[in-house]
Write a structure and sequence with these properties.
Elements (H helix, E strand, L loop, with lengths): L2 H30 L13 H7 L2 H42 L6 H22 L6 H12 L4 H8 L13 H26 L3 H9 L4 H9 L4 H15 L3 H8 L10 H10 L3 H36 L12 E5 L5 E5 H16 L7 H12 L1
Antiparallel strand pairs: 1-2
Helix pairs in contact: 1-13, 2-13, 3-4, 3-7, 3-10, 3-12, 4-7, 5-11, 7-10, 8-14, 10-13
């Protein structure tokens, strides 16, 4: 049996479970969306028309789309900033401790590593907290008689009902970002760890600053990580129903009335025909969105590969040369200068020392020979 055959053999149990418990039930949902409530007669697309004419459906769809449009960019940007901050702290510590591995520096290094680890743990801790506990904390904080209104009363300000007004949407946004920030941070740090450090050393030798290194080296090589992180954040966005339901119940404020609330209410009222039709529309819209996002990611990746070029110093001897990074941008230097700076970057990355002067080496060699 070939290697691919063995791989499919190992995947067979998972594929069997997916077909039996996901694909077949979804096909039954699609079948029921074209039938009457009791499943006795074929009604075509009338259930879909009823769903599209329902005002509650459009309210829930608009709120869900708004939540995704606000939360996912904020979550991606904040988690990327935190990941880059931790990576910069680690790289700075690595550069400072070259040649300083004992004595007082060793103790400071150990304390610094422990402090960074504790901060990372603080960011990832919400992942381990149950959703019910998170909701209880937010209720104690944002309730009409909660801690925030109590603090506002002490300061002489009037309190407000945060969970039953327009601010309920932003409370849910904060809850979602706080709970998922650590998860996305880990994904970004995994992508950053895969970037070769020699690229940063060579760029710094040529005078590139922190922002230039991030813009021209880090960011272009995180496109695949960004796609995966955004996809998982998009999927996790549909799970916010737990927090929204526990915060405000079946019928919350209209700003946080999501599609999951609508589906839950239709299920309780046994409106199976509307429920199945709306679920089919949701799967179709989500599939189109993910297909478009995947196509865009592949196009950008192909363009990025087309911009990458390797320049050899031997082919451009005496001519202007550019130090190319993965985004296609370049820093102009001459060929001898590039060769010397690249050699210096390799020395810095490998030993933390500058290369010795070649003239001194020749003089020392001549003295030994004499």
């Amino acid at each position: 049996m070939s290697g691919s055959g063995k791989a499919y053999l190992f995947l067979l149990p998972n594929l069997f479970g997916t077909v039996c418990f996901v694909l077949i039930p979804f096909l039954d949902v699609f079948r029921r969306s074209c039938l009457q409530a009791v499943g006795s007669g074929f009604v075509g697309l009338s259930n879909y028309c009823a769903v599209l004419e329902n005002k509650a459906f459009w309210l829930a769809a608009a709120n869900t789309a708004r939540f995704m449009a606000v939360c996912i960019p904020l979550l991606l940007l904040l988690s990327l900033w935190v990941a880059v901050m931790f990576q910069s702290m680690a790289d700075a510590g690595h550069r400072k401790r070259r040649g300083k591995t004992s004595g007082a520096w060793g103790g400071r290094r150990k304390n610094g590593i422990m402090a960074i680890s504790r901060i990372k743990t603080g960011f990832t801790l919400p992942m381990a907290i149950p959703a019910a506990s998170v909701v209880v904390f937010f209720q104690m904080l944002f309730d009409e008689k909660g801690w925030l209104n109590l603090l506002a009363g002490w300061l002489g300000f009037a309190g407000r009902d945060w969970l039953n007004g327009g601010c309920a949407f932003w409370v849910l946004v904060v809850c979602y970002i706080w709970k998922n920030l650590g998860y996305d941070m880990i994904l970004w740090m995994t992508g950053i760890a895969g970037i070769e450090k020699e690229q940063y050393e060579a760029a710094r030798v040529q005078g590139a600053g922190g922002f230039a290194c991030f813009w021209y080296i880090t960011l272009p090589q995180l496109r695949a990580t960004a796609y995966v992180t955004a996809l998982l954040s998009f999927v996790n966005g549909f799970r916010v129903f737990r927090e929204a339901y526990l915060l405000s119940g079946d019928y919350p404020h209209e700003s946080i009335y999501m599609l999951q609330h609508l589906f839950n209410n239709w299920f309780v009222n046994l409106d199976i025909q509307k429920l199945t039709a709306a679920a089919s529309l949701l799967v179709l819209a989500t599939g189109i969105f993910l297909f478009a996002a995947g196509t865009l990611a592949r196009v950008l990746a192909s363009e990025n590969r087309g911009k990458r070029r390797r320049v050899s110093t031997s082919e451009h001897k005496g001519k202007p040369l550019h130090f190319f990074v993965n985004s296609g941008e370049s820093l102009p230097v001459s060929a001898p200068e590039y060769k010397g700076k690249l050699h210096k970057a390799e020395e810095l990355a490998g030993h933390g020392e500058k290369p010795a002067d070649t003239g001194k080496r020749k003089r020392r060699k001549g003295r030994k020979d004499s």
